[in-house]
Amino acid sequence: MKRIKNTTLKVFLTFFYTLFIYNCVSAQQNSTYLEYIKKYHTLAVDQMKRHRIPASITLSQGLLESGAGTSTLATEAHNHFGIKVGTGWDGPYIVRDDDAKGEHFRKYRSDAESYEDHSLFLKKPRYQKLFSLDIKDYKGWAHGLKECGYATNPAYAQSLIRIIENYKLYQYDGGQGSIQQSASSRLSEEDLFFQTHPVQMCNKCCYIVLQPGDELSHVAKMVGVRKSKLLSYNDLPKKAVPQSGSILYLEKKRTKADKSFKGHPHVLQAGQSLYDIAQMYGIRLKNLYKMNGFDADYTPMLGQTIRLY
């Protein structure tokens, strides 16, 4: 198994900037977020008044789960929060691939119905401890949602907090914008870590870029994922030591690249390995070999085209 190349952080960021544009994830997203907030903040505030769920939490979840209202679930099913059918739902549904193929998601008659059902969903027993928190404690709510199992993404809480603070969503809770201090010293350490290691997305997978001085055991503690899992997610052997500037996925990569790369293979550049390509596009290494018909010991040549989808 090849090790991650010691590529500079600048090169990685330049590559992913191009990649995100290709996937329509660029600076334009900012205006999309602002439009979503303008359109739905009154719904979120109304839910807060009636159900005592911070409007900032509702809005940030809606933004994150629906891609600011652009996801298929939001546009075709008015489902802003990715809520699956589950038990007790006898209404219409829409079938989409998510954690598994062909999963059933709730379909609503309106956006308002989706927001109402989200509030009722959070009133289930598993989330009851959240309602003991202060209505302005968006950090407590964000971490509490993750701890109660709302999402499998290890950086879910930090993603919500970053959205709330970037777009000042705390104002809809009546907050003044001051960053709340956690009673837990470890939480403060996590906040500092994610300030220097922002969570980014590639192929619907979360990743960070390792910084100078990072030790994998410490990174594992901060992101809440076992070291062995991080090594597995990144196709690395047990004793591997990823270097500064390396991409580190926080969850299992996909079996192929984003569908936008269908019919658009990667042309191998000087110094690149199949491992580098797998990390660049968020693909499991074994699947990259398989879809290209390569043996485990195959070494590609400069200029060779590599299928990604």
In summary, what is this structure?
The protein is mostly helical. 42% of the residues lie in helices and 7% in strands.
Task: Describe the protein.
The chain contains twelve helices and seven strands. By secondary structure, it is mainly alpha-helical. The protein has a three-stranded antiparallel β-sheet. Strands 1-2 form a two-stranded antiparallel ribbon.
Biggest sheet: strands side by side, in what order? 3-4-5
Distance between the termini: 22 Å
Count of individual helical segments: 12
Sheet with most strands: 3 strands, antiparallel
CATH architecture of the domain at 28-184: Orthogonal Bundle
- Low-pLDDT runs of 5+ residues are 1-29, 176-187
Beta-strand fraction estimate: 5-15%
**Named CATH topology of the domain at 28-184:** Lysozyme
Protein structure class: mainly alpha
CATH class of the domain at 28-184: Mainly Alpha
How many E strands?
7
Compressed to H and E, one letter per element, the order equals HHHHEEHHHHEEHHEEHHE
Topology:
Blueprint (H helix, E strand, L loop, with lengths): L8 H14 L5 H24 L3 H12 L5 H6 L15 E4 L6 E4 L4 H11 L16 H10 L8 H11 L18 H12 L3 E3 L2 E5 L6 H8 L3 H7 L13 E3 L16 E2 L6 H8 L3 H8 L12 E2 L3
Antiparallel strand pairs: 1-2, 3-4, 4-5, 6-7
Helix pairs in contact: 2-3, 2-5, 3-7, 6-7
